[in-house]
Amino acid sequence: MDRETVRPTNGNGSGHRDPEQAKRAARRAAEKVAGREAGEMPSGRAAAALDVLGAVTNLAKAPARVARGIARLARARVPPADLDERDPDYIRESLPGLWLLASLYFRAEVRGLGNIPEDGPVLLVGNHSGGNLTPDTGVFTLAFSTYFGVERPFYQLAHNLVLTSPVGPFLRKFGTVAASHDNARKALDCDAAVLVYPGGDWEVNRPTWEANRIDFAGRKGFIKLALDANVPIVPVVSVGGQETSLFLSRGAGLARTLGLDRTLRLKVLPISLALPWGINVGDFLGHVPLPAKITIEVLPPIDIEQRFGSDPDYAEVYDHVVRVMQQCLASLAAERRLPVIG
Fold first, then answer.
1. Is 12 contained in some domain?
2. What is the reported pTM?
3. Domain boundary residue among 27, 58, 74?
4. How many Cα atoms occupy the beta-carbon half-sphere of 174 within 13 Å?
5. How many domains does the chain have?
6. What pLDDT score was predicted for residue 5?
7. Cα–Cα distances in Å, from 176 out to 40, 154, 261, 284?
8. Residue 137 sits in which domain range?
9. 304 falls in which pLDDT band (50, 70, 90)?
10. Claim to verify: residue 61 and residue 93 sit in the same structural domain
11. Average pLDDT of the segment spanning 184-203
12. pLDDT in tens, 310-337
């Protein structure tokens, strides 16, 4: 056995090579391979081949390095879930203008808000549409605050990258916190209404031709959350958001190749046709949404223990929630005459 491969370095007894040693060893190995394959090519050609090999290797690693850097930056910039960042006074001042804008641009219509319990904690479970801008979330947040008043605590869970974007501080004033079980439970324990999107980035970036499909990707964490906090589930179904751009692909394979699922918790790297970019990959810079009509319907509450017993089958609960939401979404879609116009 080559003694170099087991000799401790840096005095820590770990058996790992010093980085410079590793580079020299890799270069010697590459030189041997290059020499054999080229019939001991001249040293100039061998050096050039090694340079190209090194450049290609570094280029291949670049996207993963960038993703890891962005992930570290996002984690550093996302503050702990401080529920006090929600600012009722700010919401009260902003609400009339924003609701007018949503009503005119998206012709927003929200039905069934009376199905939400008038007070106490509740878990609102929605389907997600519209790419990173998620107009359905904005419309529902404005409608909820208008109907129940800004003093009622209401929080929405969002991906870390949303909170670290330029609009993050604005969203936190409306009650947006980083998506996690702990943050949601903290809000529910404070008697708040909490809006979650189990489908997350997978559903919000689905192709436009799958717009009228509920797709939570089998994620059942919302069921555990509702049971742990002993709160009802209230389904919230929206249509129209996936018409604000032409979504072509989730880009799931591309996200895996770049390691975004490991570094940024992103299962997708969506590809869409959107203003003003044309071809839009990742939607990291956002886009100008088309003025599609947004319609949202709130369904009656589901008490899990009352309907499924004290030890419910998660799969059965999941299937029921998805089924009632899918039926509602199909009904809302049937009302639409034309894309965007509604």
1. no
2. 0.77
3. 74
4. 25
5. 2
6. 41
7. 63, 9, 23, 19
8. 82-334
9. very high
10. no
11. 96
12. 999 999 999 999 999 999 999 999 999 9
